[in-house]
Design brief:
heterodimer; A: mainly alpha; two-stranded antiparallel ribbon; B: alpha+beta; four-stranded antiparallel β-sheet; 7 helices; 51% helix; rod-shaped
């Protein structure tokens, strides 16, 4: 009575789905940041090494498991051993947490996209103050882009404790984001397979357009030189290696069960080794490509700010010393400064504190990642471009495509195990199951649209997935290599695809990858313990900048719960299976 | 002696002609000063009780090459200066006219201590973003509704199909007609014919 499993229409759809899932916002807003922090071009060395020894093997492993077992994460791991069904459950729980907060990014992208159709862009100017003689104080102290992000978008509260209410604007955008996701997953692989053509390819179109624009921007070379100048000494920094490994790990989306779910819709004869290599290479290539774009725009922004700074200093000097208008230029500024300092020492020293120190280097050094990069720094660059509306629309459209592509993978990781389960799917049609999942997620996601929502977003972003995923993937590799048996798995794969598994993969699966994950796990765990009390960045409206605050006790409790609720699934499910078997045997014994 | 830097009721003015106009910048000379005085006198005459202000009542001093200078407005007797508040409000009311006379703007023609009123941003009654939101929202809703309805319709057809003969199929179509309240027989017939070939294939692939 086994029903035929739905399949991808062709293997291209599968590859596109994997690319669309793996290539996400992390490639655009995390990798450039890591490059900047860990030695520019030389970061590529640990990154590529980690890609080969960690990323590719683990990706191959997950795809192979999915394709072999032909089930979502829960079913696949239960088939390998009933004691391991907790791994699948943990994956589903983590995916659930992830999709809960991840779609808020899409909501923000929608919000910025909708606001891009205005002239001037709303984040390019500060609103006026009450009597129309100046600008809003908070906006003046921060910047117009920061103001639009913290005040207009988030309307952020001063601390985590002050919740505020749900705000209708972001709430509407979140609702829309979930409806879009629902539209894409409504029919399972049938509709997802078609959507991924767009979500996987359109970001590249936008990136290419941006690359052409970026390279022709004034000052782009400053940014590119900054990025590609290798700082070799960073290779000796263990943090560079750890961050490279972590970036590869999370950027491929291992452990969420999405890849297992996607691969489960493959023909068993599919050559998943080839696909694993293609997907991981494209993912890394996209990261590098996106960094080139990001850094050319970064260079533009830094040069623009640097020249603006020089102009401000010139204006200040011109005004104070009543110099002829237009006499001061960037080239004679230092010379004139020296002259003025010696000619009018008292007047000069009086105004000296107001003279800003303009430096292109320090402008380039300010490293930003995550939402700060996308919604504050990028918008700042965009607002200074010509036809800024067009670039803004393109950029946020790309963010949306990337975000929705990843959401499709996240929801597949939840839905595939649910639709696989006979109890649920016999009562409810697929549309209803996915609708319910979206509804529940959207309802919980409303937490992130409150005034303190961004702080909760940070909590989820920092703690919901990191440790749990490492543990899940560790157990996965051990399960395949030592519980299921590497030989058995190897012969399964050979029977399935008709190819022998090369020794390289076996060495990586059985030895190198688990060791790497263990060392990452130990590093992060000790890092958390050593930092002591966890802190977060709160927005101070009166200063117009971020300040560091301690998490309140209940936030710490939530963090603990987040980590525990996913990781505890593994031992609890094993324990449950054990007890169940004991009871069964207990029942069976007297009869026998 | 009424006009000097920092004197009572005196205002400093700063012009950045080169910044604003580049190569088309004009030189600041006595003619321009005359125009400036005229503009200030013109502004003052609009203030109640100051209709008698003449160009000669506006005094300039300390003109620098920046171009910056100080000015005061005196009363007709030329013995004392007019209160700062009046000058301030007169200039604020006519700032735009003064700017235009010199081809400058608020940034390049600065009256220190006289903040210029900034133009409020355009504020449409319905925010633009909500309109775009509405359009996209409606499209998505319609698309979802269509997909779900077509899914239900497909499922109904499929459920009925295996249950033998044409009789059953007729019955099913009748049911649909009744449910929708629209006599859509020809449409259903047509759909049935076209989809026949796919039905068996679908059945093999799509689970329920």
């Amino acid at each position: 009575m086994e029903k035929a499993r739905p399949l991808w229409a062709n293997s291209l759809q599968f590859v596109f789905a994997c690319i669309s899932y793996a290539v996400g916002l992390g490639n655009v807003w995390r990798f450039p940041y890591l490059c900047q922090m860990y030695g520019g071009g030389s970061f590529l060395v640990p990154y590529i090494i980690m890609l080969i020894v960690e990323g590719m093997p683990l990706l191959y492993l997950e795809l192979a498991v999915g394709q072999r077992m032909r089930q979502g994460s829960i079913g696949a791991w239960r088939t390998i051993s009933p004691y391991l069904s907790g791994v699948g459950v943990a994956s589903v729980v983590v995916s659930f947490f992830l999709s809960m907060y991840y779609n808020v990014i899409n909501a923000w992208a929608f919000w910025y996209l909708f606001h891009s159709f205005q002239d001037p862009l709303p984040w390019s100017v500060c609103p006026l103050n009450g009597n129309h003689t100046g600008y809003d104080e908070e906006c003046e102290k921060a910047s117009s882009t920061q103001y639009f992000w913290y005040r207009k978008t988030l309307n952020i509260s001063p601390s985590l404790q002050e919740n505020g209410g749900v705000q209708w604007e972001p709430a509407l955008c979140l609702l829309l984001a979930w409806l879009v996701v629902y539209l894409c997953i409504l029919r399972g692989t049938e509709s997802t397979g078609k959507v991924v053509y767009f979500t996987a390819s359109l970001p590249y179109c936008v990136l290419i357009i941006y690359l052409i624009r970026g390279l022709t921007l004034h000052g782009a070379t400053n940014g590119l030189m900054y990025m590609f100048t290798p700082k070799i000494e960073q290779l000796a920094n263990p943090k560079a290696w750890i961050n490279a490994a972590t970036q590869i790990f999370f950027s491929l989306g291992l452990g969420f069960g999405s890849l297992i779910a996607f691969a489960s819709y493959n023909e068993p004869s599919n050559n998943c080794q080839k696909h694993a290599i293609i997907v991981s290479l494209i993912n890394s290539f996209t990261s590098i490509f996106a960094s080139i774009v990001t850094f050319s725009i970064y260079g533009f922004k830094a040069t623009f700010n640097y020249e603006n700074c020089l102009k401000k200093v010139s204006l200040l000097l011109t005004n104070t010393f009543d110099l002829e208008d237009g006499f001061l230029t960037a080239s004679n500024l230092e010379q004139v400064k020296g002259y003025l300092a010696s000619a009018y020492p008292s007047k000069y020293s009086e105004m000296f504190p107001q003279i800003k120190n303009c430096s292109l280097e320090s402008e380039l050094d300010t490293a930003v990642q995550g939402t700060g990069l996308a919604f504050i720094v990028y918008t700042e660059a965009i607002k200074n471009m010509e036809v800024s509306q067009l670039w803004s629309v393109l950029y946020f459209f790309m963010l949306l495509m990337l975000g929705i592509g990843s959401m499709l993978g996240n929801t597949a990781a939840i839905l595939t195990p649910l639709t696989d389960s006979k109890i649920i799917s016999s009562h409810l049609p697929k549309e209803a199951i996915s609708g319910l999942v979206c509804l529940v997620n959207c309802a919980i996601g409303m937490v992130f649209t409150m005034e303190a929502g961004n702080y909760w977003f940070d909590i989820f972003n920092d703690y919901a997935a990191t440790l749990s995923l490492l543990l899940i993937v560790l157990v996965e590799t051990i399960a395949v290599c030592y519980v299921y048996g590497l030989r058995r798995f190897e012969s399964d794969l050979k029977a399935m695809t008709g190819r022998a598994v090369s020794w390289y993969w076996k060495v990586m699966w059985a030895g190198v990858s688990p060791l790497l994950i263990v060392s990452l796990f130990v590093f992060y765990l000790s890092d958390y313990i050593l930092t002591g009390t966890l802190k977060y960045q709160a927005w101070d409206a009166s200063q117009g900048q971020l300040v560091t605050k301690d998490y309140p006790a209940y936030a710490l409790a939530v963090i603990g719960l987040l980590v525990a609720s996913s990781t505890m699934c593994i031992p609890l499910a094993a324990l449950g299976t054990f007890v169940q078997r004991r009871l069964k045997r207990g029942d069976a014994d007297p009869v026998a | 002696e009424l006009c000097q830097p920092g004197a009572e009721n005196a205002f400093k003015v700063r012009l950045s002609i080169r910044t604003a106009l580049g190569d088309k910048a004009y030189a600041w000379d006595t003619n321009e000063e005359y125009l400036f005085k005229a503009m200030v006198a013109f502004s003052m005459r609009k203030v109640p009780n100051r209709e008698a202000t003449e160009i000669s009542h506006v005094l300039l001093c300390n003109v620098t090459q920046r171009v910056s200078f100080w000015f005061v407005v005196t009363d007709p007797s030329k013995n004392h200066t007019l209160p700062a508040v009046e000058v301030q409000s007169a200039i604020r009311m006519n700032k735009n006219r003064i700017n235009n006379a010199f081809f400058l703007n608020d940034q390049t023609l600065e009256f220190l201590k006289i903040p210029s009123t900034l133009a409020p941003p355009m504020d449409p009654s319905v925010p633009i973003w909500i309109i775009i939101f509405g359009v996209i929202f409606c499209i998505i809703i319609v698309a979802i509704a269509l997909l779900i309805l077509s899914g239900i319709w497909q499922r109904r057809r499929k459920n009925k199909e295996p249950s033998e003969v044409d009789d059953a199929e007729d019955k099913c179509e009748n049911m649909i007609t009744i449910e929708n309240g629209i006599p859509s027989d020809p449409l259903d017939m047509k759909g049935g014919h076209i989809n026949d070939a796919f039905m068996t294939e679908d059945e093999r692939l799509t689970p329920l």
